[in-house]
């Protein structure tokens, strides 16, 4: 269950670009039902985004959370990043935007089990 958060300045992407990004990201997960893939665009004003201590309206931070981790090997993780960066390219490098991506891999079954033990 992939959850993608795109932190960006207002108006960095048009409504049509956001739709294209969400569609492209969903395509990466062709092995999942499309409704499992969530993409949120979280707009952050220039006066609330600082890169190196300077305000910025040309920066994108992407956080990807995989709640049902299936990537076990380094090669699988590299393949995912390669596919993801290909999807990002027209909307980042192609627009001259500074960006970074963070991916967290979680195993929900272990998380639920750990919380159940705490009770």
From TrEMBL:
Pfam families: Tautomerase_3. Residues 1-104 form the Tautomerase cis-CaaD-like domain. This is Tautomerase cis-CaaD-like domain-containing protein. It comes from Gymnopus androsaceus JB14.
């Amino acid at each position: 269950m992939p959850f993608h958060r795109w932190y960006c300045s207002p108006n960095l992407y048009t409504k049509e670009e956001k739709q294209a990004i969400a569609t492209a990201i969903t395509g990466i997960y062709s092995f999942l039902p499309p409704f499992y893939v969530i993409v949120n665009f979280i707009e952050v004003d220039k006066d609330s985004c600082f890169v190196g201590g300077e305000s910025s309206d040309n920066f994108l931070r992407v956080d990807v959370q995989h709640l049902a981790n299936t990537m076990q090997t380094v090669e699988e993780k590299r393949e995912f990043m390669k596919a993801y960066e290909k999807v990002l390219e027209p909307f980042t490098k192609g627009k001259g935007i500074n960006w970074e991506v963070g991916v967290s891999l979680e195993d929900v079954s272990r998380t639920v089990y750990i919380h159940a033990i705490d009770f």
